[in-house]
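User: Structure please.
Assistant: Input sequence and predicted structure:
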Amino acid sequence: MAVRKLRNYINGEWREPEGCEWLDVDNPSTGEIIARVPLSSTAETESALGAAKAAFPAWAATPVSARVALLFRLADMIRQNEEPLSRSIAEEMGKSLPDARAEIKRTLQNVEVACGMPIMQQADKLIGAAPGIDGEVLKLPVGVFTMIAPFNFPAMVPFWFVPYALATGNTFVVKPSKQVPCTMQTLTEYIDACGFPKGVFNIVNGDRVVAEAFMESPDVEGVSVVGSTPTARIIAENCARTGKRFQAMGGAKNHLVVMPDAKIDAVIRNMITSGYGCAGQRCMASSAIVCVGDELYDEVTEKFVDASRKVTIANPLDPEVAEVEMVMGPVISAKAKEFVHSMIETGVKEGANLALDGRGVQGPGLENGHFVGTTVFTDVEPGMEIHDTEIFGPVQVMLKARTLDDAIKIINDHRYGNGASIYTQNGYYARRFKLETKAGMIGINVGIPAPVAYLPFGGMKDSQFAEIKAQGKAIVDFYTEDKIVTERYWPEP
């Protein structure tokens, strides 16, 4: 199969950057090279930012109805191509086809929500703020915004930002992850076909050179990033230094709390999907299970370990398993696999019980991929490194709590606060959990408490360095500047 050579999209034109290095993009399930991506220079990035800056005045002056008309067209193209887009994600990222299809549906949903910008961008007006005086708030576009994308959601995460920025009248430059750049390349082809004016949307492929240019450029008004906590902190600090707006979303260690009244069989199925979907490589994946009470802990541990053994591990595009709902593919790279293995060894050294070891997983078609099997540690104590660290792989740690108070304390004492869920039929437990738990996204009998696109997405503590979360109506405030007008008119003589 021919290897796809990717390009940048700048000022409405596809182009290969000159004199740059190229990086191979592999299928993590097979090791096969599927594309080559350019590592663009600072000059190439500045060219894209310059195009976006030049395009901004005319785009900002374009009526919002005309801006969202192009997004309606984009939504139609995504809807018509859901299956090829899903297969692209499964190929370059390694998640199952059902998971990839769900990602494309969320991508589409964000475009659809942004199409409501004629309503969402409306602000306030107060008639008679004082005698003969009216007050008004205008929500105006700001300028050039950028986004640094992660590898785990090649389509959905960039679209937490792109459609909202464009609909509000800003221009945009995206740096796709160099590990999974193919799906964004295809989506950009759709954007190009929709007829957006030149320079309104741009992509620049590359590594940290591109990201650093975003932060240093005086033409950039704001940067959004989804990545590890160290990366998010660096972006936040640099944007604060250069006076830019920022949304910096970091790591996670999402806890699932099981109460004695929970429906255990349904809970086990839900926890398997939460922890092992996308091989545990999503910011909302569960990675710590807290059981309240000794008897419950023993029951859940036994059933969860047994269910974990039965998870199908395979190339997600293998026709024999492609339509199986719960298929676990590879982690993203050999480096990621090595890190997961090292954390398993760390857990053993810390004294946790390795109830299920995913190292050395074998099977037909797994020989050349970056596969790690389902892994479960029991008898884990809060503060152990395997509990403290975001492993970002199919590794679950199981902890015991005496009471709901103790379970909430385990979560609240943790440095991450992205998501947390409780399994219970008791409204009192559920109410206390959602009010007292320090996490940005809460689930009640939901293993993946990821909000739909109409609602904001984001965490707390070391999981997010920003006041404004992603997607939904809330993000309009990130992409607009409030201008407050006080006006009065005297009568003509």
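The longest helix spans residues 42-61.
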